[in-house]
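Morning F.,

Quick status update on the modeling queue. The single chain you submitted on Monday has been processed. Sequence for confirmation:
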Amino acid sequence: LSLHRMRALAEKLRAVFDEVRGCETLQMSDKRDDRQTKHNLHRHAAQYLAAVYLLAQPDEPAHTHLLWAACHLELATLLFLKKPLVLGELLALWYHRHLADPKAERRADQLLATPAPADERDFWPTVRALIAHAWPDKAAALLYRHPSYSAAVASSPGGAPGVVLGQLPLRLCALLETRPRLDAPPLLEQTDEAAQRTFAAQEALAEFQLSWQHWKADVKQLVRESAAAAHSQPDARGVHAAALLLTGERAVLAEQGGGSWDALRVAQLFYAQPTRLRWQLRDLVPPPGELRSDYERVLAATLVDDPYGCMKAIRTVYGDDWLLAHLSDLLRRAGVDK
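Structure tokens below.
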């Protein structure tokens, strides 16, 4: 980012920070809204401080340092303060903001700007990359531009496409759009490991698991049929490779993810093990010897729900800087500093 853009970002963050700070003085009747306001305040305050820090040191190492600091702070806030019962959807949002490779997203935007995206050689590789990085909605947006979609609209009396059995790209698009999501409010509320799950949370999990089983069965059927049609339909191979990613098989996700352990773990939660609870991620994190940097060690300590290990790793990376002081204060106020 240029210094000019960072100054603009700082001004924008300062405006948001002032707005949220003003909201904090309001007496809210809904305690959940009040908690969310405070979480937003902490996040925006940290971003504002980070922007000011970068303006004082606009060199490239400081820029990298800042981006990692924002990444670490948001993940720690999610794990230690918000503490949702399941992480999949929220972890994917965090990953997209901080760690996801933007190449696939940028290429998808470029393809959507062309008259016929499906005619480009990298149409299907881009669809696969978007799926592997937990962007099913963006992959579906590309598939909307496939000729089979236009043909289905033209042949439908009501102007809305029907998913015909033989239209493999359309069926893949439908699966991407109908993937069950763990976004029910009871699953995102603050939940301690020792606390008994509420009836609403148990009911939401049960409903999700039922929908998930049906969805996975449809995915497996599409995998089988696209494999059988690989020699007779031109797009069947592309559909097959993309549908394999939706099965959540580790080897397939690892190959498409480019060797990034964080991309692989997010994809596993997204497509293979979405109902893993927040405190059940330890075996998804690589052992210390496989972590490539101190930045990744902070991520690992946070993902295994270890506040002390997280603070220790943060001190190693950042020293006694504003990030350590700010996070220490948040944890102490939330009673997580024991």
